[in-house]
Amino acid sequence: MNNQSASVVSHRPHRDLFKGLCWLASAAVVLLIFWVAGQIGKTAWPAVTQYGLGFLTKTIWNPVNDTYGVLPFLIGTAMSSTIALLFALPLGLAIAIFLSENFLPLGVRQVVRFVVELLAAIPSVVYGLWGIAVLIPLVIKFGQPVADTLSAHGHGLTIFAGPVRGNSMLTASLVLALMVLPTIAAISRAALVSVPGTLREGAYALGCTRWEAIFGVIIPGALPGIVAATILSLGRAMGETMAVAMLIGNSPRLTWSIFQPAGTLSSLLANQFAEADGIRVNALMYAALALMFLTVLVNIAGEAVLRIAQRKTAGIR
Length: 317
Prior knowledge:
CATH topology: MetI-like fold
Shape: globular
Strand content: under 5%
Distance between the termini: 49 Å
Mean pLDDT: 84
Order of helices and strands: HHHHHHHHHHH
Oligomer: single chain
Number of strands: 0
Number of helices: 11
């Protein structure tokens, strides 16, 4: 046996041990997730048997007479996360393009990149305090004319009538957009940078301008990474608690106006779990279970979209 073969044989036990540890860690994570879901489901089971699926469709949350329904909070979770993405995705993608191209010197781009990624390190409660001090007055000042215009001239937009509240869906969504912006920008930039340079050179060889190459070749090539960034950001927005609880108004009423107080599942849990007892605890755990399933559904849908994007990028029909 030569030296090379002996080296392979001697390193094989180490590789097998590392492989086994990786499998063990993966299995432990999966089992932990199922254990957490099982414990939540066990605590929520009395509420599941008492309220059934009507818990997800009722609009009244009244602990006084033990009447519970989370439809307003489900809609609030979906609306706040979607509005946040509508603000953050275009801005994050623009930042990613700016950071992946040589519009400015490398040193300046590195500084901008550091500042953008630093936003992810700011605690959620700080975002909430900033929203209370700065964003709420701005929403009241500029939101009221917009709401009056929409209610006066928009057909079917009377839901925007009335005074604009500072603690509202719009305020929480704007802060959520700022919080998920670093995730979208960082992952999208990594995806754009990883696009092979030959694609860019081929586009230039065919006579494309710089922006035509960016929008026609580079962004489509980085589409799977951009989709992945969107999925992660949506999951972050749906599960965010403290900043949303401080800014959204925590109203149990069902409203479609972005200028009025609303609530999310995470803010509901944060505000009421500490003082809950009896069936109310079970109902809150039922709401937590609903939030978990909602997040799982979003991730499944995102994974399907990601695979479609990957197949299109690879030229597979």
